[in-house]
Amino acid sequence: MARWQPARADVIAEYAREVLQVHPRGRIVVGLDGVEDPEGDPVSARERFGADLAAAFAAEGVPAVALPMGRFAVRPRAASPDRFFDETAFRAEVLTPFRSGRLDGASAERAVLVVSGPFLHLGDLAGIWHTSAWLQLPREAAAEHDGARLPGGDPAPWAALVDLAFRRLDARKLANASFDLTDAEHPRRRFEDAC
Question: For a FRET experiment, which of 89, 108, 130, 160 has its CA 20 to 30 Å from that of 23?
Fold first, then answer.
């Protein structure tokens, strides 16, 4: 007998409502971390979750923007996960305009910026998020997704970066929420705390 699982839209909408309840005022910055490679097309599971989360905030009446951090990845690719993104460019082009109400084209005092990318809990980026989520995908599944999204690429350098990141810290324990994306249409909220 198949077990009932909540639909993707319901899980994401519930998380959006939770974030809005915890942060009842102001402009909120949400980080979505995970292990998929940020390059290539089609969109990663992490970026898709980010876009759906922004839509869920909008459905609650709060303007929201989804931003994949891949556009701020350092070129050539950084050898360290804590220097993977150009944080200065991200702050200048996205974070500062968002906080001042210039990014989303609205001067609303309440809005949400949903940022998706790997290694968001490392280095100077770690302190940016009002709240964050770890989007869990088994590393084998993430490697398969990357192989389909980035055909012909050598997966070894990316795997080495992910291994280094996990040796430095466990982002699952730093995030405020955790979701298992193994079944993309039925993501499951996971509770990784020690309680």
Answer: 89
The region of weakest confidence among 35-39, 122-126, 165-169, 174-178 is 35-39
Encoded tokens for 31: 């980080």
The answer to whether position 92 is within a domain reads: yes
Assign residue 118 the CATH number of its domain.
Answer: 3.40.50.300
How many domains in the chain? 1
Q: How far apart are CA 71 and CA 164, in angstroms?
A: 22
Predicted local confidence at residue 141, as pLDDT: 66
CA-CA distance, 41 to 47, in Å (whole number)? 11
Average pLDDT for residues 55-70, to the nearest whole number?
94
Do 179 and 3 form a contact (C-beta atoms < 8 A)? Answer: no
Q: Does the pLDDT at position 71 exceed 80?
A: yes
Which range of residues forms the domain containing residue 136? Answer: 22-190
The sheet with strand 27-33 has its strands ordered as: 64-68, 111-116, 27-33, 131-136, 177-180, 188-190
- pLDDT at 107 (0 to 100): 61
